[in-house]
Specification:
alpha/beta
């Protein structure tokens, strides 16, 4: 007897996710080793074991989330199938080593595994998602891993200093002291992965560099991982300037939450704009994480959901 797996919101959503002539559906069946049947707006499991059912549920959860952000491409489907088929959040295959003692950072959700894979396979990755989804932490882990492996010569950490209007001259101290409050989340992540004395040595030798967004203009960064945190607080002009700093052998990762911009209401977020403009360029990955990818204290997810409900009303 067929078992109900899920019900789509409407026929349009179902058609988008199952693909033309059910091509996506057939691919999911093959990957999970099950037989599925679509009727009206529901999907049924006709044949398959508990493991297959679990895979199908995870696959379609990811596809439904991705479909809300835009049309699904064949590469989107293959990425989801690859991540889910590798086991719980791709924990083994996607783990990245961040220190000499063998410490690894592993994705805890399917969305995080997709994000890690995107950073490995693309020159530019834009990651959009709510607080607590590991956007910044995983980007820093990838950068530290590339630095230790000799794949990159430098890690550049950048963040727009919106609260100071990018005018940092009035703040006391040298440039590192001026930008420290804005780049603290990035430094916190690095300090979890490296001994403090090594972090200091790398900072002193510009192997790890802290840079306000305004100071990136005119530069070309080769063989570097360049991370822009809080990218939703850039203007379209600033984002264009930042993305064109990409040099030979480098990677750029931009993270942010487009629902939490500090820009004036009349100013379009550079991150949202870039995600739309660049979505069809093969070398650029746009990854959307959801509340299901929140891995902080369980209360964080409830807080985010409560604010979202209030905003909708």
């Amino acid at each position: 007897m067929a078992e109900l797996l899920l019900t789509f919101d409407n026929q349009d959503e179902m058609l988008r996710i199952l693909g033309p002539r059910d091509q996506h559906l057939r691919a999911v069946e093959k990957a999970a080793g099950v037989r599925l049947m679509a009727r009206e707006t529901s999907l049924y499991l006709v044949d398959g074991d508990a493991a297959g059912r679990s895979q199908v549920e995870r696959i379609f959860a990811q596809l439904r989330h991705m479909a809300k952000q835009g049309p699904l491409a064949p590469s989107d489907l293959q990425l989801v199938l690859d991540v889910v088929s590798r086991g719980e959040a791709g924990a083994t295959s996607e783990a990245i080593k961040v220190d000499q003692a063998g410490k690894h950072v592993r994705p805890k959700t399917d969305g995080q595994a997709r994000y890690l894979r995107a950073m490995k396979e693309h020159d530019i990755t834009l990651c959009i998602g709510p607080a607590g989804t590991g956007k910044t932490y995983l980007a820093v882990a990838m950068a530290v891993n590339a630095l230790r492996a000799g794949q990159m010569r430098r890690v550049v950490l950048c963040r727009p200093a919106v609260e100071a209007g990018e005018r940092l001259g009035f703040l006391p101290g040298d440039i590192a002291e001026k930008v420290n409050p804005y780049l603290r989340p990035l430094l916190d992540a690095i300090e979890e992965m490296m001994p403090p004395e090594q972090v200091k040595r790398y900072l002193d030798n510009d192997i790890i560099e802290l840079s306000p967004l305004a100071f990136m203009r005119g530069r070309t960064l080769n063989h570097s991982v360049i991370i822009l945190d809080e990218g939703q607080n850039t203007t379209t002009t600033q984002m264009r300037m930042f993305l064109t700093r990409l040099g030979l052998g480098s990677k750029i990762v931009v993270t942010g939450d487009v629902t939490q911009t500090d820009l004036p209401r009349t100013v379009r977020s550079g991150l949202a704009d870039a995600a739309h403009r660049l979505r069809n360029i093969p070398e650029v990955a746009v990854v959307h994480l959801s509340n299901d990818d929140i891995v902080r204290h369980p209360l964080v997810q409830r807080i985010v959901e409560s604010y979202e409900r209030e905003d909708r009303h």
